[in-house]
Amino acid sequence: MVAALALSMCVMVTVSATAGEGGSALIPTALVPGAVQVERARAGAVDVAADAIEVAQTVQAEGAQVAIDAAQLEALQAATARLDELLVEATGEEPVVSRDVPASRSGDRAAEDVTATAPAAPVAVDPTAPIDPASVFEQTPAPPTVPLVPPAAGKEDETTAELREAVAEVATLTSTVRQSAEAKRVADTAAAAQAAAEAAAAQAAADAAAQAVAAQQAQRAAWKQSLLGYANGKIPDSALCGVSFDASVRLRCDAAEQLDVLNVAYRAQFGSDLVVNDSYRSYAGQVACKRTKGYLCATPGTSNHGSGIAVDLGGGIDSFGTRQHRWMAAHAPDLSWGLPSWAAWGGSKPEAWHWEYTG
Ligand SMILES: [Zn+2]
């Protein structure tokens, strides 16, 4: 009598609650007829399979969004498609979750989807079967993990077993994809943070370099102005600068700085330092020069040696056509050092040794 009542009940649990036949929905599986057990097991498996596909597709989308390993995505997609096929076979209808058709599904199936309206409840449940609480699967939004088809509690058919196996595979692959997606998100975040830090460091370095250049330009401008208050040949030694390779050299500081740079290149080329025979020349020195060398020395008070921006070089540079002179002619202008036109070959008073700073 109790069994008959239970069999007459519909699938809604509320019916059993209002029927006032307490306990009628909790009939042990062993007492349920075999055919009903088979049907119920399959219905439960179909519900789980539909949920599993939904979760798998959500996770697959997450994985694709962060571009995890394509092989993992393809494996999950293939397993989901197989489960989808089984679902169709099990229900004889289009699956509940046929909206997001996996790419692997055939075109004709997709075409059928257009005309088929997904049934809300495609599960063929015996309306007379009692409800076993264990077989009620909640239709909740995508759960965090893929549900599994519970182990067989009674009789079941081959389709149910296949669904259980296929769901398990989808669950495993979904878990793999989810872990990869999470790891990729973490890695991407770390990489983005590192890139931002590197960009900030690069910007800071560029700013510092720009400031250094600006400071250097300001210093040179100041040096260039530094001797304007002194008459030719009347510059105190404290206002002049030396070079690193020759303690006797005295020049305006910017000229000295660039001559030092030029010497580094010269030494790299010839293996020795520039030979500087004369640099700043005081007024008294110019007078002495004129007295001893005559034509070769400028009128006292007019020589650029008296302004601290001229040098007389030796070591081969003092002869036109030598390797050293040709090298100087080619490279010194890069550092604002050069042979003035009057001192050049063919000039009014050729002096291969006399170089001036023009910066
Ligand atoms: Zn000279």
**Could you say which structural class the secondary elements and strand pairing correspond to?**
mainly alpha
What is the average of the pLDDT values? 83
Which strand order spans the largest sheet, edge to edge or round the barrel?
Answer: 1-2-4-3
Number of domains: 2
Question: What's the gyration radius in Å?
Answer: 47 Å
Percentage beta strand: under 5%
Bound compounds, each kind once, are: zinc ion
| Number of helical segments with 4 or more residues | 9
Q: Sum up the overall morphology in one term.
A: rod-shaped
The span between the termini is 115 Å
Share in helix: 40-55%
Give an overview of the whole structure.
The chain has nine helices and four strands, in the order αααααααβαβαββ. It is mainly α and 359 residues long. It folds into two domains: 2-191, no CATH class; 237-357, Muramoyl-pentapeptide Carboxypeptidase, domain 2, CATH 3.30.1380. Strands 1-2-4-3 form a four-stranded antiparallel β-sheet, with helices on one face. The longest helix has 68 residues, at 158-225. It is rod-shaped. Zinc ion is lined by residues 305, 310, 312, 354.
Brief account:
With 359 residues, the chain is mostly helical. Helices cover 50% and strands 4% of the residues. It has two domains: 2-191, no CATH class; 237-357, 2-Layer Sandwich (Muramoyl-pentapeptide Carboxypeptidase, domain 2).
Can you lay out the helices and strands and say which pair or pack?
Layout lengths: L1 H6 L5 H6 L15 H32 L4 H22 L15 H9 L42 H68 L27 H18 L5 E3 L4 H11 L16 E4 L9 H9 L5 E2 L15 E4 L2
Helix pairs in contact: 3-4, 3-6, 4-6
The protein binds zinc ion.
